[in-house]
Task: structure prediction
Amino acid sequence: MSQDEKPDAPPAAAEKPTARAKPPLSRAKRQELRRKFLRTLLLTGGIVGAGLSGFLPLVYARTPRLRPPGALDEKDFLASCIKCGQCVQVCPVDAIRLADLVDGVGVGAPYIDARRQACDFSCDAVQCILACPTGSLTYKKPAFLEARPGAPLAAKPILLAKENDPEPTLNLSERMGVARLTRPEVCLAIKGKGVKGPARGHTFRGKMRYVRIDRWKPVPIAGVRYDVEECDLCVRECPVKGAISIETVYAPDGSLRKSPVVHEPCVGCGVCEMICPTEPGSIEIVPREVWRA
Result:
């Protein structure tokens, strides 16, 4: 082969056929795929929700509920309460609510969220007990149900609204719980600070019977203004005589401070927790707590 001659070029590779573009999906097909995706999503959410529906009640069931006045011990209460809601209907301050699904076996059972709305005994006779058809709420337990030590009250509580009446006591033999100063570091009484204006602000929807305003009719707490130099609202508004007082105590640093002190007549109604002006509340009700001297 001469130098001027060039080798034949290799044959060009056969061109691959161009892939055809897929035709766009029709509108009906897109809608069908979207429905399948949504069904899958909803099915997955339902499976997860079903799992949580069994798990969450177990978690929340560990949180004690404050039951209405005269409630039996928790197991007996849940076993006998038929969730009829009669106690809810007769409460004059709408303090009693019915538990939702997260309460597990307690779903539908009545309870009180004292911070939202406490039982102020403005019905005097404790209407929820009178309305209960099963004895889940009762003035006096039957003989075969023993009271837990520390649960019975030493004497019938004196209702301040009835203190001057011929019969001033409240027909209640066991406490609902006991108030505890759970956040002393924010308590205004300990800090020596006062309260001006509504205790819980203008938007708070709770109500209470103020004897000095109207002995018979509860009024909105948001409409009552305070002007006190040193906070004593938990003592001032407690409906039970001798249940709480402001005392001079020793602080951890050895100094003398004024502080709320809870006494044996406390029935655990929750008024002190509801009226406390700090957020969160400095004082709380421990449900089913017993008195410890």
